[in-house]
Amino acid sequence: MRKIPTVFLRDPADQDRLLREVHPACQWVLDGEGDALHKADGTCMLLGADRRWWARRQVKPGKTPPPEWQEVDFDEVTGKRFGWEPVEQSGYAKMWREALDTGDVPEAEYTPGTYELVAPRIANNPEGVDRPTLLKHEDLPVRPGAPRTYDGLRDWLATYPGEGVVFHHPDGRMAKIKRRDVMDA
């Protein structure tokens, strides 16, 4: 999975701060195109077409990637690389296995695609689950009331119960915005 751009540009002097200027690749969001889906707060997993599971992994500048790591994106601003590592060697292997072994969906019924692994011990459990769970990204709830302006999103996210939203365009493009991106603005 490539890194999803944030709807608004980041301040080059402070990457934690957003500018009010729309990211050029995300103008479609402000134009009202696509749907806003809930952004679950966990860690990203991928089930490949070969039925092999992978965990998303970030590699910082100067660090060596783990064995079998597959790079899919590079951030020229931060020097960070993003890709996938075999889930069995990741720090999330135990929780991933527990999600498969104790979940409501038999392992054979998972379909290829990306999932969010959420658990009581991941990110302070904002999803409120009682055990590790795999949520398929494309099945997350649509949020039809999500505004399409900087001020509208800032105000709406102030009371939104999740991490944020990911806008999905019918042609496959995506754009995200998180509450923490706009709360100190």
Question: What does this molecule look like?
Answer:
- With 185 residues, this protein is of the alpha+beta class.
- The protein folds into 2 domains: 86 residues, no CATH class; 99 residues, no CATH class.
- 14% of the residues lie in helices and 33% in strands.
- Strand 4 and strand 5 form a beta hairpin.
- The chain is globular and about 45 Å long.
- The two termini are 29 Å apart.
What would a concise description of this structure say?
With 185 residues, this protein is an alpha+beta fold.
Report the helical percentage: 10-25%
Which oligomeric form is depicted?
single chain
The tally of helices reads 4
What's the helix-strand series? EEHEEEEEHEEHEEH
Shape: globular
Strand residues, percent: 25-35%
Cα radius of gyration in angstroms = 17 Å
How many structural domains can be distinguished in the coordinates? 2
Q: Tell me the total number of β-strands.
A: 11
Distance between the termini: 29 Å
Largest sheet: 6 strands, antiparallel
**Would you tell me the structural class of the helices and strands?**
alpha+beta
Query: Strand sequence of the main sheet, in spatial order?
Result: 6-7-5-4-8-9
- Mean pLDDT value: 93
Low-pLDDT residue intervals, each spanning 5 or more residues? none
